[in-house]
Structure prediction request, 306 residues.
Amino acid sequence: MNIRDVFHASPHTFSFEFFPPKTVEDGEALCARARALNALGPSFISVTYGAGGSTRRNTIDLVCRLQDELHIVAMAHVTCVGHSQAELRAVLTELRDRGITNLMCLRGDTPRGQSHFAPAPDGFTYAHELVTLARSMGDFTIGVAGYPEGHPESPNKHRDLEHLKAKVACGADFVTTQLFFDNRDYFDFCERAQQSGMTVRLIPGIMPITNYHQIVRFTTMCGAHLPQALQQRLEPVADDPKAVLAIGVEWAARQCEELLTHGAPGIHFYTLNRSLATQRIFAELHTSSVAGLLPPATGRGVADEE
Ligand SMILES: Cc1cc2nc3c(=O)[nH]c(=O)nc-3n(C[C@H](O)[C@H](O)[C@H](O)COP(=O)(O)OP(=O)(O)OC[C@H]3O[C@@H](n4cnc5c(N)ncnc54)[C@H](O)[C@@H]3O)c2cc1C
Prediction:
């Protein structure tokens, strides 16, 4: 199913992101967690694309498996890193031929050890070029990435927004944001996007914190900031996983409630292939003022071992 049709049917979407497993065992564990999260009634799930396309096959296989086994609407991420245009055309052809109709079109991060992004020979430099190619190749629903705090390589938020507008002008149907922990960044981003004439959905991306040291690494890498109030709560319990999880869930649930109350068109959860934190956030939201906006749960998921 096309995510565009999901949008027509519902003003709010709740989606979960996974990364492709590297081993058969990891794949089985992930499918069990995806099944648990599927009980929450997500609108769609998405699967990331490994740096340089190294796990490309795993991305495509996992999307197909989740579509076929869980009957869930699924989206494959694709990045430009390391691919010529001919290779990207082949990837998109395979996705289309295997019945994948939803794409998240990305440039991808600068590979480790390189100072700036260099396209592959005859490859693309920016995501908007991939959007244009995908738009010309099939009836895909296309998502692109947006950055409430600005993309780290961008000189300023204004220029970054211009580049986001270009992706939409080339055919993107919606935007999913980079993770953020201060909702003011998202609300400001939406205001600027709307003032610039953008009308597509800007779906906020939320990452429940389950590991303090990991989140410090992530935020440094992707240019998001950890609010001082959150950092002050996490630092003293940094090596106590249960305490970190409890704070992470509480913070994310409050973020989601405020976002939905003030008009966000749903939430995209960066699950990091775990299910417990997202399940707990849903449980909190089901007892909150935004419970009526949540999808009806289709069953009771089994909590994982985190
Ligand atoms: C929702 C989401 C999902 C993601 N999934 C993945 C994934 O599956 N795999 C993965 O490897 N990474 C993923 N990423 C990370 C992403 O690849 C990086 O953030 C990457 O650095 C930028 O990708 P982009 O598609 O936003 O690039 P672009 O939109 O091309 O932007 C990259 C930089 O170039 C600038 N720019 C854009 N166009 C122009 C122009 N015409 N002239 C000058 N500058 C320009 C932008 O302002 C920005 O600074 C994801 C990020 C998000 C938010």
In short: The chain is about 45% helix and 15% strand. Residues 48-49, 51, 77, 79, 104, 106-109, 126-128, 145, 151, 153-154, 160, 163, 167, 176, 178, 205 surround flavin-adenine dinucleotide (CB under 6 Å).
